[in-house]
Write a structure and sequence with these properties.
By secondary structure, the chain is mainly beta. 12% of the residues lie in helices and 39% in strands. The chain is elongated.
Length: 452
């Protein structure tokens, strides 16, 4: 309001249509806590008297504010910021203005001065999504010369009176945007509207939340990223040419000529219309050369997994019932959970957890432990092999990266020689947490050549 720049309203408009408008279920009225952008995932909705998160309260407020920034004024300038059907009573000027539009279902809006007469400058937003020179402003049937550019305002200074009509043409076009920091993923837009595709309704567990602690999180399976549709095109910037409008369905497109791996019957529509379904909002889009590199990278990851599996002497998945029973779990003040489809276990101050692992008579062994790379709080703890302390580990602020980290700890032969089994224990120092540990392997050490 103190520095009225169109770029702020470009952002505001996108947030309004693509997020806020999408966050309430149009049938039962439930609110969304958060919106995953993971390919083929889904959103969970609140339920009256059960799921009352902070975002339910914010959600109620959001939907009562659609009129808030349609118009603003500064001295003798009236800013038309948003293209929303509405009526403005500008008390200081004694005028009433009605806006008539079906935007974004149509590419125009109309202002009609219905009462009063006053001199002021009407500032019409030139949206960033209209191409340079494409926006048309017509006052009482006469075109206005427009020297403004996208993401700015067009000023019309005149004496306005009842009966004046302003028609504004807002031609939209298709575009793509890359996901920040992960540019291989793109989103489709038509004008300011994000287009997405429905991707099935299987396993929508917890779609309407209960009153559980984690009820706001989709509990259905996360579908594999490498099995999601991947767009192949050697000229990524031209992909929008493949979108074909569906007759009599505004903002809806088919993509019959788009080449895909793991193809989906794609119908693109406004994301705000998609509910009770898995969806594709961001799409991996690669040139054929990039795709070959991607497949090679997947193969290398798989090769590393196979190599680690061959080295593994024993393995336990902390937090999973049967593996913990099989490995004679002992614990105190310990907790378990699930994150990104992986189970974990930790132990708080004064507690511990331990497992009995077989050595199969081997020496030259190591522990391979998987941690999450962005844990909070103090994470200093001891790792013991039977009654001997192997080391003191400190993961406090160690990586600050939201990805899994696997650490190998070499075990002195003296700790395992002549033993068929060892007990591996994680024990926090005072005022610390041990873990969380996502998997634990007893594995053969590799030599410098990669042999074990």
């Amino acid at each position: 309001r103190t520095n009225p720049q169109a770029q702020y309203l470009d952002y505001y408009e996108r947030t309004l249509y693509n997020h806020i408008l999408s966050t309430q279920n149009p049938v039962h009225g439930g609110y969304v806590y958060f919106t995953p952008v993971r390919p083929r995932h889904y959103r969970v909705y609140s339920a009256p008297n059960e799921a009352m998160w902070c975002c339910v309260g914010s959600g109620m407020e959001n939907h009562g504010k659609y009129n808030e920034l349609i118009y603003t004024h500064q001295q003798d300038s009236l800013f038309l910021n948003l293209f929303v059907p509405s009526e403005l009573h500008w008390r200081e000027k004694g005028v009433t203005i009605r806006q008539e539009t079906k935007f974004p279902l149509e590419e125009q809006t109309k202002l009609v001065v219905t009462q009063g007469s006053s001199h002021y400058t009407l500032m019409v937003r030139y949206p960033t999504w209209v191409k340079d020179g494409a926006m048309k402003v017509i006052v009482n049937g006469k075109p206005i010369s427009c020297a403004s550019h996208p993401s700015s305002y067009v000023g019309i200074d005149r004496l306005w009176k009842a009966g004046d009509v302003v028609q504004i043409e807002l031609p939209m076009h298709n575009s793509i945007e890359h996901l920040p920091n992960v540019p291989a993923y793109i989103a489709f837009l038509h004008g300011p509207i994000v287009l997405a595709a429905r991707a099935g309704t299987e396993d929508l567990a917890g779609l309407v939340a209960d009153d559980s602690r984690w009820g706001h999180i989709p509990s259905g399976k996360r579908l594999p990223l490498d099995k999601a549709p991947i767009i192949l095109d050697d000229t990524i910037a031209s992909i929008t040419n493949e979108l074909k409008p569906v007759q009599d369905k505004p903002l809806t497109f088919m993509v019959p000529a788009l080449e895909m791996v793991n193809p989906l019957n794609v119908v693109l529509e406004p994301f705000y219309q998609i509910h009770d379904s898995r969806y594709m909002m961001y799409w991996m889009a690669l040139t054929k050369k990039e795709y070959n590199s991607y497949i090679y990278s997947l193969a290398m990851v798989e090769k590393e997994k196979v190599a680690l599996q061959k080295r593994t002497v024993d393995f336990v998945a902390p937090g999973e019932q049967q593996p913990e029973v099989d490995h004679a779990l002992q614990s105190a003040n310990s907790h378990t959970g699930n994150y990104l489809d992986e189970f974990w276990r930790d132990a708080g101050n004064g507690g511990y957890f331990s497992y009995d692992l077989t050595t199969q008579g081997h020496t030259n062994l190591c522990l391979v432990v998987r941690y999450w790379g962005n844990e909070w709080g103090n994470r200093k703890f001891e790792i013991w092999i039977d009654e001997q302390r192997l080391l003191v580990e400190d993961n406090t602020g160690r990586w600050s990266q939201s990805r899994f980290q696997e650490v190998e700890y070499a075990i002195p032969n003296a700790m395992v020689k002549g033993k068929d089994h060892v007990r591996v224990k994680f024990q926090p120092l005072a005022d610390n947490t041990a873990g969380a540990v996502y998997f634990l392997r007893l594995a053969k050490l590799e030599d410098a050549t990669g042999r074990h």
